[in-house]
Amino acid sequence: xxxxxxxxxxxxxxxxxxxxxxxxxxxxxxxxxxxxxxxxxxxxxxxxxxxxxxxxxxxxxxxxxxxxxxxxxxxxxxxxxxxxxxxxxxxxxxxxxxxxxxxxxxxxxxxxxxxxxxxxxxxxxxxxxxxxxxxxxxxxxxxxxxxxxxxxxxxxxxxxxxxxxxxxxxxxxxxxxxxxxxxxxxxxxxxxxxxxxxxxxxxxxxxxxxxxxxxxxxxxxxxxxxxxxxxxxxxxxxxxxxxxxxxxxxxxxxxxxxxxxxxxxxxxxxxxxxxxxxxxxxxxxxxxxxxxxxxxxxxxxxxxxxxxxxxxxxxxxxxxxxxxxxxxxxxxxxxxxxxxxxxxxxxxxxxxxxx
Length: 355
Known about the structure:
Layout: E1 2-6, H1 11-23, E2 28-33, H2 43-49, E3 53-56, H3 62-67, E4 73-76, H4 92-112, E5 115-121, H5 127-131, E6 136-138, E7 141-143, E8 149-150, E9 153-154, E10 157-158, H6 169-189, E11 193-198, E12 200-202, H7 214-224, E13 229-231, E14 240-245, H8 246-258, H9 260-263, E15 266-270, E16 277-279, H10 280-291, E17 298-300, E18 310-311, H11 316-322, H12 330-343, H13 345-352
Helix pairs in contact: 1-8, 4-6, 7-10, 7-12
């Protein structure tokens, strides 16, 4: 089988490509990436050692996809992943990458008669809808009350039935538009497709930033003793996310790619689930325990336009369909991240230890 992973030198893409090549050594796995994100160049050595071919290219250019060669399966991991992209200026890059790039990927897959697994995002769900959830403060985190539920939400998390009316950021809008295009290509051209709406993904080799990759950023700033702030919702760090270990995501993609006919046309919410949810304040405690010193964390009470106080994934649909469930919780994930940071401290300090 010939597999093309777009965004293949990124955190998720490189992890997926290496895992597929490890499990399916006779398959040809090609990683396509424009290396725009700082730190992605560090993946090249790992990809080469793992037998994954690298092609420097940009999904905004259809010629680059053609130059990557034939493929049977496209795993679309490329994106401008910042939910804040476009708020302070021109949204061109996020639109051209996440939407025009998707069109180019779908056209390439159509010409190759290839299957597509598309990594979407929980950010397709509207900001106001998530902010209107009846959250309660319990200890150092926000929670949904037991016994309460509404359209697409309960104490078990958010499902794909959550209403889609309302704004969701340019980033979220481009991913939702891409989902709609994927549905149309499937209906019109008979392509087999799967959509995974992923929550927060984390793990070794993620170059975390304030606006994307907070879990790794939090660990790195604690290790390197660099500044952090609780931003928004009063500046107390009570906002909550569930976190999915990238290895758990790779487990799911291995299942889906090996039997895509079983899941053709499906849209799944994919995340760590309630058991892997953590508030920023709780994450600070977990990180401080691992570096054996607390970090003084600043506060910026004002909430940014795209921020939401709570998102936890209800995995019940994907678990029922695939038999998959996440196996690595926040403690395991954090141990893996700190081990990676310490093993590569000299290379990572300049990328992850900034002010």
